[in-house]
Structures are given as structure tokens and as C-alpha cells.
Amino acid sequence: MRRQSLFLVYIFLLTLTAAAAMLHSWRRIAPVLVRSNAQGGPIWFKSRGISSKSGSKFDIGTSDPAGCGSRLGSKGSGSSYNLKSNNAAVGGATPRAMGDISINACAATHPRFELLEDVIISEYGIRQFHYRHSPTGAEVISVVAPDTNKVFGITFRTPPADSTGIPHILEHSVLCGSKQFPSKEPFVELLKGSLNTFLNAFTYPDRTCYPVASQNTKDFYNLVNVYLDAVLFPRAVNDSRVLEQEGWHYELENMDDDLSIKGVVYNEMKGVYSSPDSIRSRATQRALFQTNQYHVDSGGDPIVIPELTFDRFRQFHKDYYHPSNSRVFFYGDDDPQTRLEVLDQYLGQFDSSSPSIDSSIAFQKKGDKPWKQVEYFPVSEDAPKKHMLTVNWLLNDRPLSMKEELALDVLDHLLLGTASSVLHKKLIESGLGESVCGGGLSGELLQSTFSVGLKGIKPEKVDEVEHLILETLNEIADQGFSNEAVAASINTIEFHLREFNTGSFPRGLSIMLGMLRRWIYDGKPSHGIQFEESLNMLKEELTEGTLSFSDLIREYLLQNNHRLTLEMKPSTTMEKDDAELEKTKLKRIKESMSKEELNDIVERTQQLKQFQEQEDDPEVLAKIPRVGLDDIERSVKVIPLEVWENMSDSVKVVTHDLQTNGILYADVAFNMHALSLEEYPYLSVFRRLVMESGTSTMDDVALSRRIGTVTGGIRANSMNMQKHKDTVSNSVENVLSLFMFRGKAVRNNTSDLFDLIHSVATDANLDNQAKTLEILREQKIQYENAVVSSGHSFVNTRIASRHSLLGYLSEITGGITYLQQLGLMINEAESDWPGFLHKLEIMRKKICCRENLVINLTADQKTLNNLRETVNHFIQRIPKAERHSCAKSLRFSWDNSSLLPMENEGLIVPTQVNYVGKGGLMYSEGERIPGSSVVISKFLGTGYLWNNVRVIGGAYGGFASFGPSSGRMHFLSYRDPNLVDTLSTYDRAHEHLDTLEISDDMIQKAIIGAIGDMDSPKMPDQEGFESFQHYLRGESVASRQAWRDEVINTTAADFKAFAQRLAKLQGNVCVVGSKASLEAANEELSEKLKLVHVVKPDGVKSRL
Questions:
Q1: Residue 388 has what pLDDT?
Q2: How far, in Å, CA of 459 to CA of 387, rounded?
């Protein structure tokens, strides 16, 4: 698993749920596996590969205007049903004329490719051509789409026979050089100097995907060529050093040293097996699937990984990476003919269409008796000893129809989709646990599963949880769902399917993953993403009464005895026992080796390090194709922006005329300048309460259903940003804090959207002690788990909190300090509810008033033209500010002495790996930061840190992050087996830059990579919101252009100047790791780490 982005990846890792645990990828962001249970927030339906966080629809006729002999992939909509649809106006974000271009396209022809199917997929205005490469049998999907963000992917079915992690290790290894591109790390060279919008690989339990994307056609085909050569002709199958580096190897630098195991995947999976949620999800999969390939871990079990031999590794590639076992995908506006010609250049080197091995996946037959199982997860000695329990079902042992899948999507949303969904609500309000877990429906594999339960359960309450789940399901089956609940869930799903807003994730990749959901199991690819016919059938059957969600609950859950009840028990000795087991095992292995065998390990250790440290020859690197500076866009993109004049009370309304096909994206923001520092930690619970506790006229259930019925979702969040200045300014005056309601609706429902935002902003029922405690307890246990799995994000926030107000605000609202504060807030809400409620009510008065208001609207001009009266009416209903003392407001009370003290810390959690960070200020207050800084920091991350922290050190990742506004530099590692050595690597970074002979070629590559990061494609709502941020920060087009010019004009002298500043960086250290690891490090470090237990018994606070 690798990482494309250098630093922002931690955001994804922090927010991933257990549903994504099946993926072993370099960057875990596939949106098809992520769900949000936030009120009205995005829901990405897991049974479809296509992300329904958003969706687009093109109203295509049933004729074949191009005369290419197509057949339609779905029927048009128009069925009548008694559940009113509110999404009639929802369409795609691409102009209709471009959709016509894609559907009118004719199939490309090639003598070695046989056209199997030609399908117009009207839901998304695309045309799919399905081919088979005649000589090899490789299947190819070529999608013609009106999208400049072109996508390519090649996928192999790779079901493993054991838990040595062969598919996962091979995923890492194939991009470490190939026949045509023999450099050690072509993947990294592409990271350094391409305009890619996606560059990654995923390992599922039964398949491995290699996708790339780019908006630049030349760059796109560069990526395609490198990836095809990599997967089909990798150096890894002829060079065992790649397996040793990426998978595992014994390490012994001297004969007298202790034998150890190193390897990127080995260390990555040690981190995975330290996470309670990952342990639970893996145990669930193994138990539900007893007889087929899903019973083993394709990612690799650290105990089993060292059993993998080079011969088996090489044979696996030979067996499964043959074109006959591949699924190749193209998408976008590039020439379809070129696709086939390029592909044949690679496939043409193979001549057999007979699969070398059967890679099909067998169905696990459902059992007839429920069973129970107990597993353990590590906790620290003084942590609360609370359990987890989930009830888990295997839903099907036959293929599901498209309509059945969609019906299960709706059922999943009815049960668990929002905080007020009936099963979620019943579980969390029971008080038996602190957070709902399990993830609900998961349909990414051949067979679907459903899991639900609680974490944070007291030992004496564990048995009650299973009973509650089954009892609640029986009650729901008997009583059914109300028409309002069903209407809200169907509208929510339909809105997001049609909107097809995949955010920064390429649309084509969502299309690919959706098609693979069927295609990988030899089904029709288009059936993985089409929904119109199934949706109409679902509505018709609900209208006619022939479909009952109660019956679905009975069939798939209550009467389904393939049911596992999994209890997860905390173990205070597991971490130590695992470490001792590994130590003892390695000692025994070493003692069993002859002197010659030990000498061989010492020699191989030295040879591997020499290989890793060796630079590629310039001639070898030159073989990797790339774009030049002439291929990049020199000018910044300008988003249309108009500020409406003459609005009520001169409230600023910022608008963006963008093609949204009848959808309004509204951001209602309130300045939080009146809040005191002490009130900031309460923002998170306040944000949840206003959305989840109902109003004076609607309880929480009615509010949730109303949002789901008439909008595409509303969510609340807070945001802190730094105003734009040409020089470093970390003063309180330069900080802007906003509380925001972000919502979307079709044109006809915009008044409903603003009515709902008004209700939750001014009339939310804050007097709900039970809900408040539920939220706080849920957050506490989620944060405790997150520190173990995503420690680097907490390290980053912790370091920042010692240097700036923005960093400190992030720490007290989402860092370790906030985690510790949660325990005190729980005690306060329990013992002094009137006082707690008073704080929340005062916060609402300080925040949600007209004087603080600024509104951002993104829509097409037709939608905007009809909004002035609605928006004015909304503004007039927001109350004016009451008088509050300004003395305690942040602006008047802040002093830099409130920052966390400058000290080095070791944060103790139960884990087998470390997250090592160091950072500090490189530029002082008032100094100007050049644009070259982002070029050089990316250069460090993709070069020096990649080589030394990841390749040589064996960590899963290493990051260099520079703040162009704060002037702060951070170094971070992820799932790192080292600690002291990693800190030493950070400290030598300036020497690397200072002594490196920086060529023009290196600089150009770094510039292109930095521009690629800056120019990532965005959906219209993202463009509008980004433009809104520029407006709020006071960042003009001219200033953004000047920054871009500096990036493009980076010179060798800038590298040397950066190195000189880096040499003076003092900074401070923060590490998340085990107690044993941190204590061992303190024996070596001259500046000791202050050790702090992150998780303390309930009600006890560490002094942080």
C-alpha cells in the first residue's frame, strides 16, 4: 500500500471506517467503502462500486442517433409511485452537449480486439464498449465520457491461498521497476514529476487494482505505459531484493545483534493488527467465510508473512498476472482508437488465451446454526476495560440482482444511515455501549455481509447487546417502516446517485470500481453502475405492496442462521505477549542457524541496504516518460464570483455561476469571533447536537426524515483559517473561525433547504442530556481508537499546537488535548447538566446571529436568479446579536503563552509500530515565504524521506509537510518500526539538500509535481467553496498568480536557501508508540521524551 499525496492522506486514514478494512492499498481512499452516519451527511453506498456520495444523470433518448448499433443499458424513468420524488431536476455537472458527444461515439476497431457489447449508460451520459483481446482473452472496457479527467486501470483476480500477503506484497512490488522502465522506483518518479490526478493501487481480498488518472493526455498515456509495463513485466519477479524490501526479510547487521524482521508490508500489517477495529473486521471476515478464499487475509498476517518464499511470490505473478486474468479499463475524452493500439503493444507480447490457473471465487454456503466467537484486542494497563460486540450475517450464497442490491442499500440506510435511523438510534440510546460499530452493509465482494454492534461495553453488559439487536430487528420487522422514513431514504439514495459528485476522487475511477463489482465475477460490467431500471422497479413494488422491507429483514437477517456473534475482549498483555512471542521466535530461529547461514543474512542485509542507497543512473531515469514545463498551465484558474449587493443588513452573499444542473450548494457561515478559548472544545458536541437533537417542532427523527426527503443533505462543521498576507502572521487578528451549515438541494427545494438551516441554527433542541452524553462517549472511544491507527495525524496536530494559534485550536478541538478533555466533559454533562446546557445556549447566541453571517451559493445562473428573495427572507429571520462581554473572546484574551509548552513527547498507546514526528518554524513572524517552498518540501517527501524512512527504514510512509502560510515544517512517519533512526533522518534532511547536486531536470520534475498537486480537478461545489475561501481570506487572483509564478520559477538557489533555513530548525518531537518502544528510545536520545499515557481510566486526565 502506498501513498500518492504526501500529507493530506492522514485525513482519509483518520476518517475511514471498518468497512474499508478489506482494502490494502497505498492510499485508502476508495469512496465506495466509506460511510458517514452524520445527520444529513454523505452516504457512500457500499454495495455499489460507484460512489453515490453524488451522482449525475443525462436524459438520453432510447434511439441510436449515431447509428452505431448500440443497445440501451437502462430504461428511462417515469414510474408513478406514492412516495414523492424530489430529485426530478437533478442532472450531471457536465453540459448536455458534451453528453451527446459521448453517446454518439462509435466503437473503435482493431483487428486483435473483438467487440462484445456496446451500451449507452444513460444515468451518467457515457457509452461503454466492451472488448476481448482475441490472442490473450483479456477483457477491456472503453468508456467514452465528456470528462477531461481520464482514467486507466488494470485489475487482476488475485484470491490468495493463505495469509502470507502475496497479493498485497506483489501490489507494492510490481511498481519497483520493469522491463521497459528498470529504475528502482518508477512509481515515485511519477509522483515527483507528473500531473496525475490519481496514482495508486488497491488490494482487495480477491482482486488487485492498478488505477491512474490525469487531465493531460500526454501525461495520461505516460502513466498508462509505465503501469502496463510494471504489472506485466515487473523486475520484482527476477530480483528477490524487491520482495525483501516491500515484503519481508531477516535483518542482521552484525553477527552478535538480535535477529529482526523488516519490510514495508510487514510493518504496515503490524500496524493494522494493532487497531481494534481492524482486528475485529478481519476476525469477522475469517469467521463468516469458512470455506472460500475470503477466509485468509490477502493483506497478510504479520505472523504468517515470513513464510512467503521468493519462488511462491514469483509463481503467483506468473499464475495471476497473465492478461487472460485481467480486466482493463479506460475512461474519458481521449481517443478510443489510441487506447486499443497502446494496449495491444503490451498484450501482444503474450500469445495464450488460456488462463494458467482458475482464479474464480467460490460461494461460501450459508450455515444453519448461529455461533459465537471471542477475539482480543490490545489496550494499555490503565485504560478502561471495555468490550466490543457485533452481530454479523453472511447475506447471500447466490448472486443478487441489481434490484435486490438496491433494496438492501435502502434497508441499510433505514437501519443505520443516520443518527436517527431506527437501529442506530436504539443501540446508542440503550446506554449499553459508547459507539455503534460494524459498518452495516458491505457488498464489495462476491457475497454481501451485514454487521452491527457496539463498542465501549462494560463487561457485565455484553450479553445484552446481542439480545437488543435481535429484539430490535424483530420489532422493526413486525411494525415496518413509515412511509416518511422510506421516502426519506429513497430520496437520499436517489439524490446522491443522480448527482454523482465524487469530490476529488476521479469520476472515472468510481465508474471503474462500480463496474468491477459485477465484472470481476464475470457479470455484465454496466450492471455495476446502472440504477434507473432497478430504482423504478423498487418504487413500483413499494407502491404495489409487493416489496416489504420487513420481509427483507426476516429473509436476510432474522431467518438467516449464518450469523456470527463476535465479542472483542480487551487484553492488557496482548501487546507485550506479541512482542515477546516475536522476540522468542526470532531468537530460536537464530540459534537454529549455522554460522554460514548467519553470515549470509549479514551479507544480504548489507547488500539490500547498498541496493536501496544506490542512485539510479540518469540514463535509466530518462526512460521514464514525463511532461515538460511547456505542458503545464501557467495561469491560475479563475472561478466566477459575484457578491450580491443590497441584501438585508448588508449581509455578504457570495455567488458562483457554475454548471450544477439545477442543484444549489449553499454554505451558511457564522463568524465565531465572540467565542472564548474555553468554549472551543464544546464546538464538536454543539455541532452534533444542532443536527441530531431535533427542534421545537420536529423531534430528531422527523428532522432527519425532512432533511432526507427535500434536500441532498445538510451538515454542520467548524473551520479555522488564516487570512492571506504576503508575510508570516500567526497573530490572533489573522485567524478566522467559522461555524458553517453546508447543504444542497434541487432548484425547486431551495426554500425548504434554507428553512431547515434556519431551524437547526436557531431552534435546535440543545436541552438533551442523554444525546449529549451519547455524542461525547462515542467521540471518546472513536478518538482512542484513531490514535492507534492514525497516530501521525495526532502527532502533526500536537506539534502545530506549540507554534501557532491555528495549531492550538486544532489541538483543543480534535487532538490529544481534546481527547483528554472529553472525559472531563462527560463528567460535567453528568454532574452539572444545567451548567453544561447554559454553555451551549450561550455559544448559540454568540455564533448564530445576523452580524456574523456570510453566505456562499454555488449554482447555475438560472437557479441563482430565483434565490434572492429566499435568501433575503432567511437573513431577516436570523436573530440579531445580543450583547456579550468581549473580555473573554478569543481576540481579546489570547496570549501565546497559552500554546502548549515546547517539549518533546512520547504518547503511549498499545501498538506494534511508531508514528514519529518533528517540526517547527522555518520562517519567523513578518518574513515572506517564497512559492519555491512547496516545490522543495514535495521534493524532500518523494525523494529523501521516501528512500530513507520507507525504503531503507521499512516504514509504511514518510511525509514532509510545509505550511505556506504558517512557515512551519513538519516531518512525519507512518507505521514505522524505527524511532531514533527516523529522527536522525529528519535531522539530516538539510545536509541532503545542501550537498545534493541539483540538476535542471530534478528541478523541472519537482515543479511539475507541485503544479500537479495544485491543479487537482474539483467538482463545481468544491470550486465554489474554494473560491469562497479565497474571498474570506482576502486572497486575490493576482496574489495566487504571483505564488504560482514563483512555484514555476523555482531555481537551484532556492533549494540551497531552503536547506540553510532547515539547518537552523530546532523544532520539537512528538511520537505515538508503545511504552516499551518509547522507553527504549529514551535510553538513546540526548533530549528525552516526556512519556504520557494517552488513554486513562474514565474521569482521569493526564497532565498534557
A1: 97
A2: 6
